[in-house]
Amino acid sequence: MSLVAGASLLLSACSGGDSGSGSTDQNGSSTDVKSMAAGKAETGDLFKLADTPGYDGTVTIGIDDGYSGYNNQTPDTNSSYNNYVLTAVLSGTLKLDGNNKVLLNNDVFESWDVTQKDPQQVTYKIKPNVKWSDGQAYDCKDLYLAWLSQSGLAKGPDGKNPFNSASTTGYSLIKTATCKDNLTFVTDYSEPYLDYKGLFNAPAIMPAHVLEAKTGIADITKLAPTGDPAQIKAAGDFWSNEWKGFKADIMPSSGPYKITAFDANQKAVTLEKNPMWVGGKGGPSKIIVRAMEDTKAMATALQNGEIDVAASTQPDATAAQTMKGLAAQGVTYGSASQLTYEHLDLNFKRMFADKDLRKAFLESVNRKEITDKLLKEVQADAEPLNSVVFFQGEEGYTDLYSSKAGLGADAAAKTLTDAGWVKGADGIFAKNGVRASFKITHNQNARRSQTVEIIISQAKAAGIEVKDETDANFLKGGRVSTGDYDVALFGWSAQPFKAESKSIYVCPDNGGEQNYQALCDKKIDDAYTAAVKATDEQVKLQKYQEADKAIADDYATLPLFQTPSMWAFKGIDRVYMQSYDGVLWNVGEWEQKK
């Protein structure tokens, strides 16, 4: 799942090395991999694709799950795996390099400046002559639609917002959005928002001209929140429902590549160069992105020459061993910590409304056993993550879970006993006719199945029955977004903007559109509200820490670990798996390895 940080400034001109040199880091990565984290033409705070000779031929890439939607901003499409494809297809203001450095997409935008501090105003300048792949202008209307669709302010005839957006964080603070001219977009805020650079990123910006043509709306910019409700309804319905899968006539590209085919059965999407792209002209002639849910099979496919790049956000020890052993075939292997965390969400609408049960469950789960058994081959120093707002090594990171999780079976059993739960003849606690029995649900993923297998054993010793439920469509079939689970096991992937985590943890009726577990605590809401609008960095940090602590004190979520990525490639000069955007973030400058 996608959601909603940190940086090295160095630009390296090195091309990729051969991992066969024997020079590797502690995780088996080629030491040259770190030099591939910056774009070839990246300079300062600006990103442009380098104009390289390119790659004459087809590159096939394996990722963990399949593409499903052109609009990745609705709850049922919002996933990292769509983003991994769309990062090469759609353009926004923001580019993140492999070091998670925040950069302006200077192929498409001139600037993103705070033009007024109090009240805050941000002005975006689009470069002249930027076009969609259908020849239509990429202009201010596209940014306006991104705001309208995600502001939460639009109202249809029934008074409800017809735009079904996954999150409104940040956009909802923009009280007015104005096209000063075709290339100048001005946003005026109702309160300060320091993380404004996280808005209007690539997946957020849909082609307004397509929506206008298909709905009969003459000018989308006339649909301010007080515009014609019927037209707002038509726009919202189209935006929310029509940009699923792939339809060539309504899904043009504003990036270096365009989608030319999508096979939902084979879970494969084909990309070819966008002839209207204004930036560098390098990269492969054609790209095929294949979903390969079995990471071991992905590694074998690389070994057998079926794919050229294996890019997994789901670390697997056996697959890592296979890929590390392919150096003699000219394969380069890499691994890096992602801004992604694996976690368990407990559903407050079901039996986990009982805080004592939440507390006992967390106490029964030994996360170190999970990281030691499942991650060490991929990341030698892997350890449990003890925050859901901060990553290890970040300023503000505090260990909030070591005192709550992994305390052992006896501690968990005592918590239940003290709360009136009674162990039955079957060894499982029960209270008021309800047994301490529930499912942990996840997508089709071998490592997650192994995680649940470990937890089943740990929980059973404490008198808690855990069952494993695998649903291949769990993350994209509406079950997560509708809260259809007891415990959900998945990952959130982050940009470098803490404000965006607000939508996961504040009350659902207070901007928590991605709060699928129905957690609601005024302490969390108040802390996030203060943090998001803070203008003092220390105040902001303190308030995010308060939110983090309040979430932990509710025993709402159990972070397991910061998820390392692993990738391997051959025949290409340099590939780096960006934490949020995957390997295709700079595909337009890939070259054939000489």
Please characterize this protein's 3D structure.
The chain has 594 residues and is of the alpha+beta class. Among the domains are: 70-242, Alpha-Beta Complex (Dipeptide-binding Protein, domain 1), CATH 3.90.76.10; 339-562, Dipeptide-binding Protein, domain 3, CATH 3.10.105. It is 22% helix and 21% strand. The protein is built from 13 helices and 20 strands. It has helices spanning 80-86, 140-150, 208-215, 229-241, 295-303, 317-324, 355-364, 367-374, 409-418, 446-461, 502-505, 522-533, 537-553, and strands at residues 46-47, 55-63, 94-96, 102-105, 109-117, 120-126, 174-181, 184-189, 257-263, 268-273, 284-291, 309-312, 332-346, 422-423, 429-431, 434-435, 437-442, 465-470, 487-493, 557-569. A ten-stranded mixed sheet has the order 9-10-11-2-12-20-13-19-17-18, with helices on both faces. Strands 5-6-8-7 form a four-stranded antiparallel sheet, with helices on one face. A three-stranded mixed sheet has the order 1-4-3, with no helix packed on it. β14 (422-423) and β15 (429-431) form a beta hairpin. α3 crosses α4 and α7 (355-364) runs antiparallel to α9 (409-418). The model is unreliable at 1-22 (pLDDT under 50). This is ABC transporter family substrate-binding protein. One of its GO terms (cellular component) is ATP-binding cassette (ABC) transporter complex. InterPro entries: Peptide/Ni-bd (IPR030678), SBP_5 (IPR039424), SBP_5_dom (IPR000914).
Write the layout of secondary structure elements.
Layout: E1 46-47, E2 55-63, H1 80-86, E3 94-96, E4 102-105, E5 109-117, E6 120-126, H2 140-150, E7 174-181, E8 184-189, H3 208-215, H4 229-241, E9 257-263, E10 268-273, E11 284-291, H5 295-303, E12 309-312, H6 317-324, E13 332-346, H7 355-364, H8 367-374, H9 409-418, E14 422-423, E15 429-431, E16 434-435, E17 437-442, H10 446-461, E18 465-470, E19 487-493, H11 502-505, H12 522-533, H13 537-553, E20 557-569
Parallel strand pairs: 1-4, 2-11, 2-12, 17-18, 17-19
Antiparallel strand pairs: 3-4, 5-6, 6-8, 7-8, 9-10, 10-11, 12-20, 13-19, 13-20, 14-15, 15-16
